[in-house]
Amino acid sequence: MTSPFATGVVVRNAAMSMVVRPRVIVVTLVICALALFCAAYAITVGRVSIPLGEVFATLLGSGEGGVNSQIIFNVRLPRVLTAIFVGAALGVSGAVFQSVSRNALGSPDVIGFTTGAATGALFQIIVLGGDGFAVAASAVCGGLLTAGAVYLLSVRNGATGGYRLILVGIGVGAVLLALNNLMLVRGDLDSAIVANLWLAGSLNARTWSHVVPVMVGTIVIVPLVCLSARSLSMIEMGDDIARQLGIGVERTRIWMMFCAVALAGLATGAAGPIAFVALAAPQLVLRLTGAKSVPVLSAASMGALLLVLADLTAQLSPLNLVLPIGRMTGLVGGLYLIWLLTRTRRR
């Protein structure tokens, strides 16, 4: 007999009914707790070591102030919050794209949407000389334009999804990658250096101007994704079945892709291209929770945990090496992608 802890408990009243899955709730809460603990510990790490107790006291407003308070609020807290919300945004974006494409390889960095967001951000950095909010806005616009191009090229008979969406996205991403390299070559030296540092994906020197766009965007968009997650899960059973249940299949796909691209663009604008968090986070939580629906909140919490852990690992690396966070996630994520591809081929 299957345990209700794994399958869920049906809660009904006169107006509605819903399925509560204790295992999903417990796993999500544990991941959130781990992410918050790692984030608090990350604030203590740096050239100036700050005790964990003083960190909590300062954040609660009862600290002693002084230099440590300035370091916490102006340097380390923006860095940690950027990691949390960038990771959460990428986790949700990956969950949506994997559901839309019905493929574990469906994520914004694989399909090319992150490259499109990087194109918009690079245009702002190299050509217009903007930063902060301007880079974030340009990244979102670049991601949305890329998504529109991929959708128009992959749509067939009024529908998209599956391998066609992934293959078209990879092709468009390759073209945009060449365009990005061209902008780096044609830009002036100072702008090219700044752009190259940004392309490495980094949480260094994050300020509140980096935190606010991705934080506000994630807080606004994630609940909207949650509202449509059930419809997207039904679409995974097949377009015909979903239409019979009264779901606007293509309208739901377009809306969810818009939300996912906006999240990926905001994350890219805040920290640069961060590879494989969007790919790995949804798959990890699906294995931990055993859920069959789109894992929106659990993927957000896992994405935040992965990016905070990656940043913490980069800061604690031996020999005082300065490791860009995007390169570290790319290294680990590449190994994960190889494992995922070999596992899929065996199946």
Automatic annotation (TrEMBL):
The keyword Transport applies. Signal peptide: none annotated. Its main location: membrane. It comes from the Bacteria. The keyword Flavoprotein does not apply. One of its GO terms (biological process) is siderophore-iron import into cell. One of its GO terms (molecular function) is transmembrane transporter activity. It is a multi-pass membrane protein. It is found in: Cell membrane. Keywords: Cell membrane, Membrane, Transmembrane, Transmembrane helix, Transport. GO terms for cellular component: plasma membrane. Gene3D superfamilies: ABC transporter involved in vitamin B12 uptake, BtuC. InterPro entries: ABC_BtuC-like, ABC_transptr_permease_BtuC. The chain crosses the membrane at residues 24-43, 80-98, 110-127, 133-153, 165-187, 207-233, 254-281, 321-341. Belongs to the binding-protein-dependent transport system permease family. FecCD subfamily. This is Fe(3+)-siderophore ABC transporter permease. The lineage of its organism: Bacteria, Pseudomonadati, Pseudomonadota, Alphaproteobacteria, Hyphomicrobiales.
